[in-house]
């Protein structure tokens, strides 16, 4: 697609591409300007430091430029063609009895759709990165629902922002300036002067330093504090003098502050989902928000990390009814997080092949899980060298969605946004979608050939 707006600067070679979406975090900022010299990205405007690096890294020397095959007896890789790599990968997946498909969170919904169909064709398990971040949020929402809204509503209406167990200053650098605290909205014309910010975190983070109220909850005591807050909202006495490291009087004050606002928003992160309590923490957080709606308008939004992890859950849900940890080994979709999640399967050694795309479990999974991954036949699709590509059997490079390829992604508030292409990919590099399409058709042929022999 041609850039929507391209205005030339003083230099004849420089161009500015406007209205670009940043494919890094779940904020999906859509107001970037990319400065190009021919096909080379030389600078960005409006992007945070991480978003800037995302665009710059597309053309640095760390890219994988050709498919690779790892020698079984060493860590050495041999360059191969795409045809060879796709055939080899298809053979691995077609022969596997229970392959694991993992990742999906940093690629387009179009690629995710084909990937899930491939997993179903292979009778495998497909899982996205939610299983190690906001999976507990999904479980809680499935249990008690979720009062949600869009980030646009937050910008225009919210006069109370609560960041609980997250640090957007570092994880989502433009979140506060675009949507929550600093922007001027329709009903928040004075920006941050019309808002009150509360940060609940065991550590005095850089986000906490900008808060009007900082609540230093004791590590792992989020559930207890939320429970006490609900008690205070009901006007009942909190029996303990201190709950989660917070004095009883402070909790009552916090509850009264929340009730005094017109529109509140609870943003929560992995500090709540991946600590003691897990999905029960989110369960009671949702219940707290529901209680607040008896007094004022209140919503919550999960601070999703990868730019399209929300999209992966959406695609899996409309295809098969489940948002992650989806198992096709019985011929139909099953869902049992803790049993059918990627790390659990690797830790128990239950898969006989693995396929990783748009994520890097080698940098985040336990060593024991990755040791097993390194022992079985594996396929990894990634534009860059990562710890995961280093221990994979077949590695295929791909284009970067939102930089070199178009694609749909879902923002953290589940609003779909179309990412744009701003530069051409290195010559000969295929997209995730094309690689998956070719794999799907080849595996289908191999499955058919095998079926005809029986």
From TrEMBL:
Keywords: Oxidoreductase. The keyword Oxidoreductase applies. One of its GO terms (molecular function) is formylmethanofuran dehydrogenase activity. It holds the Pfam family Molybdopterin. It comes from the Archaea. The keyword Oxidoreductase applies. InterPro entries: Formylmethanofuran_DH_bsu, Mopterin_OxRdtase, Prok_molybdopt-oxidoreductase. Residues 63-440 form the Molybdopterin oxidoreductase domain. GO terms for cellular component: membrane. GO terms for biological process: methanogenesis; respiratory electron transport chain. This is Formylmethanofuran dehydrogenase subunit B. It comes from Methanooceanicella nereidis.
